[in-house]
Design a protein that fits this description.
- InterPro entries: CHP02448 (IPR012661).
- This is DUF2388 domain-containing protein.
- Keywords: Signal.
- With 105 residues, the protein is mainly alpha-helical.
- It has one domain (3-104).
- Helices cover 78% and strands 0% of the residues.
- The radius of gyration is 23 Å and the shape is elongated.
């Protein structure tokens, strides 16, 4: 009779551990997928706007924007962000990601 509670406890512990590991893997997979999509979007931006004069002119403003964590927004960066969003509406990147992509050109 003392074996049953011990076995039941061990079974519950095994199930709880398995559930935690499964949810961790699912969360990790989801976050990894989101990061990959964002990275893929910004690399698409980098390659398609590589020789664009409006985007190239915004490099200094993009550097200030990234360095100030978004506090400094220059006119050339604003123009480049509008231009990118008009030319590639499918891109789902925020201003910080776009500024980093401009710096990567």
């Amino acid at each position: 009779m003392t074996r049953f509670p011990l076995l039941a406890g061990a079974a519950l512990l095994a199930l709880a551990t398995s559930a935690s590991a499964t949810s961790f893997v699912a969360t990790t997979d989801t976050l990894g997928g989101l990061t990959a999509n964002a990275s893929e979007s910004t690399s698409d931006i980098s390659s398609s706007f590589d020789d664009d004069k409006i985007v190239r002119a915004a490099r200094d403003d993009a550097a200030s924007f990234v360095a100030s964590n978004g506090a400094i927004r220059g006119a050339q960066l604003e123009a480049a962000l509008r231009h990118i969003r008009q030319q590639a509406p499918q891109v789902q990147a925020d201003d910080q990601q776009l500024a980093r992509a401009i710096l990567a050109l």
